[in-house]
């Protein structure tokens, strides 16, 4: 039997420093178990074990019906015929420990020809630090962060892997509220039309400027999603008008949902930190005016992995410097 993991090189763990303890929060997107023998095998126990400097800190065990319920191979079965596979998706870990965790061991026990056997793999867990110095993609204060990685049901679990650490940004009013309902015009939102700026130096590797649709469930039937995706592509369908910038060290930033014809750059152009890329809008898969932003390890939305983005110029409501935004609904100001 063989075991494959996604992502394949390492798992990113944005560690929260609690002083005397560390909070680890990471996601194994997929693990695949393949019966590469010529015989039927039966899976009977799966063990995830997390380590910190060789010390075990957490163990999760699936067996019997619990194991079968986690398998997504079309038949929810622990019995694999030759060349069949079993896939487990999106196993989330949240761990409180003295030190940050650094290794995940995955071990599957199975029966072949009446004999108990096992196979295991280990994968590093990394507290990834941004390789370049970045500023926030908008200016000013009162920006509320939505869909942060600690909100599992927003970008991290259901969205493509490149969006694992994505954030949505909306501007609050003087009462610290985001004002929006479906009867409002886009122009009525405080953030609508705000300038979107490049977080760092780089080259534009992709952009789109002519989208005028909102492919949101309340606005369009599913048939329209299909039509728009086929006619204009999946990235414009989801992101509307967008820009992707390649930075040094294989880091790529994406800015989505901008106003039609507001994008100021073209593919192949070089940009400086702080250059205006476009204006905040409500186009694509968008329920209200906001900026969708994320960092990833490649240029393609559906083929890349997400990266946490650390910023150099933001503070919270009480003036405390921030780097990586670690909590949903954080209110951010730029320095």
Write up what this structure looks like.
The protein is mainly β. It has two domains: 2-126, Immunoglobulin-like, CATH 2.60.40; 141-334, Distorted Sandwich (Glucose Permease (Domain IIA)), CATH 2.70.70.10. Helix content is 9%, strand content 41%. Strands 11, 12, 14, 15, 16, 17, 19, 20, 21, 22 and 23 form an eleven-stranded antiparallel β-sheet that branches. Strands 2, 5, 6, 7, 9 and 10 form a six-stranded mixed β-sheet that branches. A hairpin with a 5-residue loop joins strand 21 (314-315) and strand 22 (321-322).
Count structural domains: 2
Number of strands: 23
**Approximate helicity band:** under 10%
The CATH architecture of the largest domain comes to: Distorted Sandwich
CATH superfamily of the largest domain: Glucose Permease (Domain IIA)
Topology overview:
Layout: E1 2-6, E2 11-12, E3 16-17, E4 22-34, E5 41-52, E6 55-63, H1 64-70, E7 79-80, E8 85-97, E9 103-112, E10 115-126, E11 141-146, H2 152-156, E12 167-171, E13 195-197, E14 202-208, H3 222-232, H4 234-239, E15 241-247, E16 251-258, E17 270-271, E18 276-279, E19 291-296, E20 306-307, E21 314-315, E22 321-322, E23 331-334
């Amino acid at each position: 039997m063989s075991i494959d993991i996604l992502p394949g090189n390492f798992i990113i763990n944005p560690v929260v420093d609690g002083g005397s303890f560390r909070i680890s929060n990471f996601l194994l997107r997929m693990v695949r178990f393949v019966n590469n023998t010529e015989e039927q095998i039966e899976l009977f126990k799966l063990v995830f074990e997390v380590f910190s400097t060789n010390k075990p800190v957490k163990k999760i065990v699936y067996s019997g019906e619990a194991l079968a319920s986690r398998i997504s191979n079309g038949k929810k079965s622990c019995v694999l015929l030759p060349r069949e596979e079993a896939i487990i998706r999106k196993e989330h870990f949240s761990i409180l420990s003295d030190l940050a965790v650094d290794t995940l061991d995955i071990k599957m026990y199975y029966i072949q020809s009446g004999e108990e056997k096992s196979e295991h793999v280990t994968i590093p867990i990394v507290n990834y630090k941004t390789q370049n110095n970045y500023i926030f993609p908008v200016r000013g204060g009162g920006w509320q962060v939505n869909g942060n990685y600690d909100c599992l049901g927003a970008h991290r679990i259901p969205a493509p892997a490149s969006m694992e650490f994505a954030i949505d940004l909306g501007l609050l009013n003087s009462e610290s509220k985001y004002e929006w309902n479906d009867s409002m015009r886009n122009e009525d939102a405080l953030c609508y039309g705000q300038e979107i700026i490049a977080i760092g130096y780089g080259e534009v590797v992709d952009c789109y400027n002519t989208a005028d649709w909102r492919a949101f469930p309340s606005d369009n039937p599913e048939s329209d999603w299909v039509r728009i995706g086929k006619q204009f592509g999946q990235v414009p369908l989801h992101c509307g008008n967008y820009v992707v910038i390649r930075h040094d060290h294989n880091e790529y930033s994406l800015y989505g949902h901008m106003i039609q014809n507001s994008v100021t750059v073209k593919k192949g152009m070089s940009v400086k930190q702080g250059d205006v890329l476009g204006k905040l809008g409500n186009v694509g898969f968008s329920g209200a005016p906001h900026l969708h932003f994320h960092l990833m390890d490649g240029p393609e939305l559906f083929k890349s992995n997400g990266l946490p983005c650390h910023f150099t110029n933001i503070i919270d409501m009480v003036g405390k410097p921030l780097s990586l935004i670690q909590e949903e609904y954080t209110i951010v100001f730029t320095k």
